[in-house]
Design a protein that fits this description.
The complex is a heterodimer. By secondary structure, chain A is of the alpha/beta class. Chain A has 27 helices and 31 strands. A five-stranded mixed beta sheet of chain B has the order 3-2-1-4-5. Classes of the chains: A alpha/beta, B alpha/beta.
């Protein structure tokens, strides 16, 4: 959205303030008993600067024709740093005029340069790629060279690809296409483009984290290597959402020093934040339960639409979006015209239409998943409703940041769900303000990931003694392994790729599930979904909701990657109940930690929906069950299991057997949240599970499992296993430094997620058992003593700072990991032949 | 002779070359001897002399790549004429036309009376060593097919020897068509049993061989060997046709000596 301040907007301002007053009045009167906190963020004036001196008059004129007479301060700063050829990173809370920040200096250079250079633009997913071509296309019209633009991704038709390869100066693509389409063909079809490459523009750079980020970092190593071979030295221009470590992150990704711009010169209108907790009610029995967020969001959205206030509501899941949408428009044709759902799994053209309608104002309210959290331009919105906490602090601010542009006041309503973390925010609103924003972590030298890219590198160009920006030791060892298994052979003083295949084909940047299942109604494809989601929502007889219509699944064929549905009219929805199984199939290493047993090895993980519940809409009554017969979602990975010391087990079970489970659940939680820092992984790359293991016949003991969620394992859980003492120390640090008394989401919540046993839940809810027992277990593991936990009834509070431990390169370990990675690759290759 | 042309220099076309010759500049060395007599502006003269000096050095070192790439195809016969006795003449057989999903099955190379064969699954890689030790590679249609196919197949950025394409040399002398057509036009016979085999048959032979038929292997190799030998034979004949005093090798002698 190009920043403009025309007269028209100024006169609307006072009307907006009045409108929001009306809405606020509604909120404050209707939900008086639910509002827990109210915070007001003052408005901030815009920080403007005139056009830079070097800006070409043609561009100035084009901007003025669109009503733009000045730039935001950060746009001006970006122009200068980019013109000085410094790698530049823009960290923004919202996308305030990103397009201009990127493209003004680049277009300015383009107009003035003797020979046309080329620009590579990278957007995270296919959807975003195609969107930006339109915004950018408008700017390109300015320069009258719109023939030089092209989107190169999986959807690009074949003849269009040739045109783009031959004559485009600006190419928009995504990391997957760069990895599998462009780099392997760098010497023929893309040679000219890469030889002239001057700028690489990357949007939303914060999403390249964890295992995916490590893969992408390697793709960029290969790109820069290939550019060097063709004689170009492109510079980077990136944008990122707010993360805890912007400078380090881009350094880890691209191995370059960046000029980081964190100021945001866009004016911020006043923004008001309401924290709401739905009411507690009595059910038919004697139990009390808290209503769901829909009890607030439905009337709120309806009122907002009536008042013509542009609204976005973020839900946590696709099906929640569909259900909320149906409820909001139920029996209200007027509202139905103005409200729409949005989520992944909709067809691209459906998504495009929704985005356009939202920008044009044809839709007043949109109910969405976090799919709309990222940069697609969706115009100016005024009300943001968060149905539950999105999972990370960064996402919370990203989603709330979708409202409040220009000088229109905005309102954010956070509605808590009935889970420990959401409830914690209700009781501790200051936590959100002061909680550290999560860091983006990755490791390009992760041996498991690096070894997948080394053959690709060899295929692109024979490997030389030294390759820039790779860790020398890891590189040498990788080369040795490839030499040994004859993947590469000596050629002059380099090593050439000796096989006949295309190694990039066998490397999936995103892990296991990069394909989609298509949903057919009759012969028409109405949507698509990933294979795990399909198991959970498209099993036979499941009720699937799509854009408000209801369908019943007739058949889900995972092999053929399709699902057949037919439209139905029912008054219930279905929910699958998953069962998981985890097993260590092969123990490779053992460790003893003060008599606690740790085993590291291959883990088999199996998740399967076994049955589904039928739940009546509106009343949420359970009206029946049904079986689900589907192949489980299973994969092999690596990880470790941990068993508590015998003495500790015996002593605690004498007092209360539940203490043992409490300790395991608590440790599982804090471990899952601290381990990623140690491995530079993303939180979703590691998972924990608690299972019973038959130690001796008829003797079942609780075991904690920790494993990588990436198929085959990428060394994260392995690292935790290796450094278990350090990791446990970190956990203890976190707990001790936390100023809360009986647990909180920052250390160990009173009721950690995953507890299904009623008796255990009762204990945890009433006391500080989770943190006390966790402490006891930690003590046993780290010092070998048995401390009986002092379990008392409770209280609460807030947070710590997590320091990254020093990383030391243990060369033996790397060698072993590379060896393991080579084995995995071999199996993969044999499987595909 | 290579040093009798100036057409590989930037800005020098046939008319300019004629002019130079009329002024007595017949070789590169002539130009270096009397640079002040060159009919060029100072900038053009500088550039021209740089090109000439560089070309002399390149020729001495055997670095023909630049000269070949700048010289119009019509003049490539000069390269052949200078190096035909020591050149490596080769041909490849593959499983198909596109290097994307096909691979090399046989390579046959003739040089200085010796015929070397490289076979899939056996010693294909050794061909690269031969290339390292060669001065010039000659193929028929190799610019479009053999060379790029090998570069892709071996995963190397560029084949490590200068190369020229006999097909276009023949074309500019008035002989157009594929290898077998040129053989007929110039009177090069094929040995018995090989004349009927074509590219498609070569692919079939390979698959039969893979299924266990060793006769097919033998036949395929012989077919490839003949192709490489005729490239050599045609090279001699085309030079003779242009008026050079070449003692051409009789095809039957070559076949008898080298094929079994």
């Amino acid at each position: 959205m190009i920043n403009g301040h025309s007269k028209v907007l100024k006169t609307l301002n006072s009307r907006d303030k009045l409108q929001m007053k009306k809405l606020k009045h509604y909120i404050e009167s209707q939900f008086e008993h639910n509002i827990r906190t109210y915070q007001k963020q003052e408005d901030k004036k815009g920080d403007f600067k005139g056009f830079p001196d070097e800006l070409d008059p043609q561009l100035i004129e084009a901007l003025q024709n669109q009503g733009i007479n000045k730039l935001y301060a950060h746009q001006h700063t970006a122009f200068e740093s980019i013109t000085k050829r410094q790698h530049t990173l823009l960290v923004s809370h919202t996308a305030s005029g990103k397009t201009l920040s990127f493209f003004l200096p680049v277009l300015n250079d383009y107009i003035h340069s003797d020979a046309p250079f080329s620009v590579l633009l990278l957007y995270p997913t296919k959807a975003l790629s195609r969107d930006q071509e339109n915004t950018f296309g408008k700017l390109m019209e300015v320069v009258n060279k719109s023939d030089y633009l092209g989107t190169f991704d999986g959807d690009t038709p074949r003849d269009e690809r040739t045109r783009i390869q031959r004559s485009s100066d600006f190419v928009i693509t995504n990391p997957d296409m760069l990895h599998g389409g462009i780099l392997p063909n760098h010497n023929r079809k893309w040679k000219d483009f890469l030889a002239r490459l001057r700028y690489i523009i990357i949007d939303e750079v914060h999403i390249y984290r964890g295992a995916f980020g490590s893969h992408v970092a390697n793709v960029f190593r290969r790109l820069l290597r290939v550019c060097q071979i063709h004689g170009s030295h492109p510079m980077f221009i990136c944008s990122s959402a707010t993360i805890g470590n912007p400078t380090d992150h881009v350094k880890n990704l691209f191995n370059k020093e960046f000029f980081v711009i964190e100021e945001d010169g866009a004016p911020k209108p006043e923004r008001e934040l309401y924290f709401m907790n739905p009411s507690l009610v009595q059910s038919h029995g004697h139990a009390q339960y808290r209503k769901g967020p829909a009890s607030i969001s439905i009337p709120l959205i309806r009122e907002a639409v009536k008042q013509n206030i542009r609204t976005i509501c973020f839900c946590r899941s696709r099906q929640e979006v569909e259900r909320l949408y149906r409820s909001v428009i139920d029996r209200n044709a007027e509202i139905a015209k103005k409200v729409k759902p949005y989520r992944g799994g909709l067809l691209p053209n459906e998504r495009r239409k929704l985005e356009r309608d939202l920008v044009d104002g044809k839709i007043t309210a949109i109910i969405t998943t976090n799919a709309l959290e990222l940069g697609i331009d969706i115009g100016d919105l005024e009300l943001c409703v968060l149905s539950g906490h999105p999972g990370t602090i960064a996402s919370f601010w990203q989603q709330s940041g979708r409202v409040g542009r220009q000088d229109k006041p905005s309102v954010v309503v956070f509605i808590a769900k009935d889970n420990p973390i959401d409830q914690y925010f209700i009781h501790h609103p200051e936590f959100l303000k002061s909680a550290p924003i999560e860091q983006a972590l990755l490791n390009a030298d992760n041996p498991y990931i690096f070894l997948q890219h080394l053959p690709c590198m060899a295929h692109e160009h024979p490997l030389r003694d030294l390759e820039e920006s790779t860790d020398p030791f890891t590189y040498q060892e990788g080369v040795n392994i490839l030499k040994e298994n004859k993947t590469i052979v000596p050629y002059h003083d380099t090593f050439r790729y000796a096989l006949q295949d295309y190694p990039a084909r066998g490397v999936n940047l995103r892990g296991m599930t990069d394909y989609n299942i298509e949903i057919y109604c009759g012969t028409e494809v109405i949507g698509e979904i990933d294979p795990i989601g399909a198991r959970g929502t498209l099993y036979k007889d499941a009720i699937y909701q799509h854009l408000g219509r209801r369908y019943m699944s007739l058949d889900l064929d995972l092999e053929k990657k399709l699902c057949r549905v037919e439209e139905v009219n029912v008054d219930y929805y279905t929910e699958a109940h998953w069962e998981g199984r985890i097993e260590m199939t092969e123990s490779e290493e053992k460790k003893d930690l003060h008599d606690a047993q740790l085993n590291f090895g291959s883990i088999y993980y199996n998740k399967q929906p076994k049955l589904y519940k039928k739940i009546r809409e509106r009343s949420y009554e359970n009206i029946g069950y049904g079986p689900i017969t589907l192949d489980p979602f299973e994969y092999y990975t690596t990880g470790f299991s941990l068993l508590a010391p015998k003495k500790w087990n015996e002593n605690l079970s004498r007092i209360d057997k539940r203490y043992i489970s409490a300790a395991f659940f608590g440790l599982s939680y804090v471990l899952r949240h601290t381990a990623p820092i140690l491995c530079m992984a993303d939180i979703k790359d590691l998972a924990t599970d608690i299972s019973l293991v038959e130690m001796e016949p008829q003797q079942w003991k609780s075991a904690l499992y920790m494993f990588d969620t990436v198929e085959g394992g990428v060394g994260y859980a392995e690292k935790v296993y290796e450094k278990i003492e350090i990791c446990l120390g970190l956990c203890l640090d976190v707990i001790n430094n936390c100023s809360c008394e009986s647990g909180c989401p920052s250390c160990v919540p009173p009721l950690p997620p995953g507890v299904s046993d009623e008796e255990l839940e009762a204990l945890l809810v009433e006391s500080n058992a989770s943190i006390a027992c966790t402490r006891s277990l930690l003590s046993a593991l780290m010092e070998g003593n048995t401390v009986i936990p002092e379990v008392t009834t409770h209280t609460l509070t807030s947070l710590p700072k997590m320091e990254k431990p020093p990383q030391d390169l243990e060369e033996e370990k790397i060698k072993r990991k590379l060896g393991r990675a080579a084995k995995t690759l071999k199996i993969k290759r044999e499987r595909s032949h | 002779m290579i040093n009798q042309t100036f057409l590989h220099c930037f800005g020098i076309g046939p008319k300019t070359e004629e002019k130079l010759q009329s002024l007595g500049f017949n070789t590169w060395e002539d130009c270096l001897k009397n640079p002040e007599m060159l009919p060029f502006s100072p900038n053009k003269k500088d550039r021209f002399l740089n090109c000439i000096s560089q070309s002399i050095n390149d020729l001495n070192d055997g670095n023909l790549n630049h000269i070949i790439s700048q010289l119009p195809q019509k003049e490539h016969w000069r390269i052949l004429e200078s190096f035909y006795q020591d050149a490596t003449y080769f041909d490849i057989e593959t499983t198909g036309l596109s290097s994307y999903d096909n691979y090399t099955t046989v390579i046959s190379a003739y040089r200085n009376g010796e015929l070397k064969t490289f076979v899939y699954g056996e010693n294909l890689d050794d061909f690269l060593d031969l290339v390292d030790n060669s001065t010039l590679l000659v193929t028929f249609n190799g610019n479009c097919f053999d060379i790029p196919f090998l570069e892709n197949s071996f995963n190397i950025p560029q084949i490590n020897c200068p190369y020229i394409d006999l097909r276009w040399i023949c074309y500019h002398q008035g002989y157009s068509g594929g290898l077998k057509s040129i053989e007929r036009q110039l009177g090069v016979p094929r040995p018995k049993g090989i004349a009927e085999i074509d590219g498609f048959e070569a692919v079939r032979l390979f698959h039969k061989w893979q299924k266990g038929d060793l006769n097919s292997r033998k036949k395929l190799i012989k077919y490839c060997q003949v192709d490489s030998l005729t490239v050599f034979l045609i090279s001699e004949l085309i030079l003779q046709d242009m008026g050079f005093e070449i003692e051409t090798t009789p095809a039957s002698d070559l076949y008898q000596k080298l094929l079994n």
